[in-house]
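Protein NRT1/ PTR FAMILY 4.3-like: structure, please.
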Amino acid sequence: MEQRRQLQNHKGEAMNASEMGKEDITLDWRGRPSNPTKHGGMRAAAFVLGLQSFEIMGIAAVGNNLITYVINEMHFSLSKSANIVTNFIGTVFLLALVGGYLSDSYLGSFWTMLIFGFVELSGFILLSVQAHVPQLKPPPCNNMAAADNGEECIEAKGFKSLIFFVALYLVALGSGCVKPNMIAHGADQFNPESPKQSKKLSTYFNAAYFAFSMGELIALTLLVWVQTHSGMDVGFGVSAAAMAMGLISLVSGTLYYRNKPPQGSIFTPIAQVFVAAILKRKQVCPSNPQLLHGSQNNVPNDTTTFSSDAGSFLHAEKFRFLDKACIKMQDGTNTKESPWRLCTVAQVKQVKILLSVIPIFASTIVFNTILAQLQTFSVQQGSMMDTKLTKSFHIPPASLQSIPYIMLIVVVPLYDTFFVPFARKFTGHDSGISPLKRIGFGLFLATFSMIAAAIMEEKRRDTAVNSNKILSIFWITPQFLIFGLSEMFTAVGLIEFFYKQSLKGMQAFLTAVTYCSYSFGFYLSSLLVSLVNKITSSSGSSGGGGWLGDNNLNKDRLDLFYWLLAGLSFLNFLNYLFWSNWYSHKPSSSASSAPGNETPMEDYNHYRLDDNNIP
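Here you go.
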């Protein structure tokens, strides 16, 4: 608490320092202006990467094998279990908005991670306790044997169900609030205004995905093996230990962090723009945009500066109605207007950016619906196949998801070390290729992941039903490999895109917005499963039970569901091409930048949003 008071006390001092240069407002652990030679950089970011590796290690081991625990220990049906898993993961990413808002507005990234890191840790511990104590679970029962005998296992209900969901959603709350702040706090260790640091920032985003891949790989191999052979209680306990190690890593870097202080409510200035634009909806915008309030930095204490590109974007035809919020009433008096009636150009620009990136965000939802299948139905696919690697070693089906990460821990360093510098020579872009292009390539690859999944599921099912043979589990590795490569492009590109769009003081929140794509994708998966089951069962296309109506994949038509997703994925890619072109389009303007200095729309300078921008 004392540190947070010091952060607020020194906020004014840091702002004055920021006005004299381009350095971001950053403070050390005591609340004093940070020293570039002592604070920040890759050394500080490494401690955050440690937290990221351990945190993803803990939650991935739970999330990726959760469906097995829910079916075998809690005795929920296959479709209900799949929805429990997707709803849980969707909630994790939706709660990222809460973590981003609390961080930017009140707590700061460090304190948000520390507080909610302990919330996540308590959820892991409670899951471990329930898995260990027989009285907190339904009686043991074999679902397959019970189904063959026409019986049903007793489903978890009442207090047992309550304990499970409380523990599960403590993990969801903690992880959701921690996730966006790990990325944002790590990126905050670099000054994007410095060309040298900007390149390091690009390297950091790739390093963050490498840390994510390492955590996932360990979770999907070692931790899932522990869950399979030592029990889920030990497995959940190891997840708790991993989270504790992550918190130790976070705290160990305290002396080296450059911390961005919270700015107060980040939503108030946004709301003021909409209110002011509505109140002045009948006003006519001046033909000269320089007459708009704040367009020439004529606002007292306004430290905002604009590039020529930003000016052309601000006054483009997109969302032109918002410019009315900057019209100063000419009533012959010098009456000062309320900030709810008169806003600065900086505020309007922020709102325009937020509205412009929504279609880009929405175009990645179907992509994450595909990810949901790899964590639910594809795991069940693996459980119906031959998991034997040697005579004595069997591959846990949940470990299938480790396949892309084995590839990525090799590909990501090669990408950053060789491809990025090579591409940079041709594009002049710090990241090699722009985040928008990176996202688009990833979305294109995702379609082929579902095509591979559909083909292999059809082969697996036909072989099992018609030939009474079981295929090797390695037959379904292509869908994981293709999607892993797709995720490397899409996920990293999306986070980098949003972080570089954000106004200063909103990095954590806009990073959290990228996680909402995961959330909506997993919720869409649950909706699709229920909708497809309802439609196909009523049409009788799968013997009356629907494509996914049975607990036996040999009777279900998972292959048809995968083909449906492949079609949706391709349509989504075409949709993305339209919106990315719309976003990148820059109207001709006399204020355009000179040749050779053109900057992609996605790399505009950052703008800080705080009360100093409000008259």
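Notes: DSSP finds 20 helices and no strands in the chain.
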